[in-house]
Amino acid sequence: MKKNVMHLTIGSVAFLMIVTGALYLFVATQEISEANEVFTEHENEPIEGALIEAVFFATVGGAYIPVGLWALSSRHSSKTPYWLAIIGSGALIILYILSRTVDMPLVGMQDDVGFIDVGSKILQGGIIASAVYIIVTIKKEKKASLLA
């Protein structure tokens, strides 16, 4: 039974990471579209902030997917993809909070909070919780095998 829960949790982490990666790639395409609109409508208006956001979102989306697949393929033989998931997701949550409370260089202080924003943070919270469970379970299994 415990093995089934572990397999389900590993699959859940991989699924959440792939969905989150796809969501970030979708947002990157929106940012590119917005930057293109600004450039064509207002040729003198700077678009660096939108382009930086687009590159950032594309990079995050592009990183989530392979780490999610790595977690799925490594199962519980390695804790590394789960640590990457925890650190990366936690950093993105903190960066999101900072971007809404502090004037960030290049992009300023963001004041929008949308469905995609909240949804991605919920997904990232699920990634963190599931990855922590997997790491704790791997540690317990290794400790039990050493004692046996």
Description of the molecule:
This protein has 148 residues and is mostly helical. The chain has one domain (2-147). 82% of the residues lie in helices and 0% in strands. The chain has 4 helices and no strands. The chain has helices at 2-41, 48-74, 80-101, 115-147. Helix 1 packs antiparallel against helix 2, helix 1 packs antiparallel against helix 4 (115-147) and helix 2 runs antiparallel to helix 3 (80-101). The two termini are 20 Å apart. The relative contact order is 0.15. The mean pLDDT is 87.
Strand content: under 5%
Structural class based on helices, strands and sheet pairing: mainly alpha
Radius of gyration: 18 Å
Major sheet: none
Distance between the termini: 20 Å
Number of strands: 0
Overall pLDDT level: 87
Helix content: over 70%
Chain oligomer state: single chain
Ranges where pLDDT stays below 50 over 5 or more residues in a row are none
What is the N-to-C succession of helices and strands?
HHHH
The total of helices stands at 4
Instruction: Describe the global form.
Output: elongated
Query: How many domains?
Result: 1
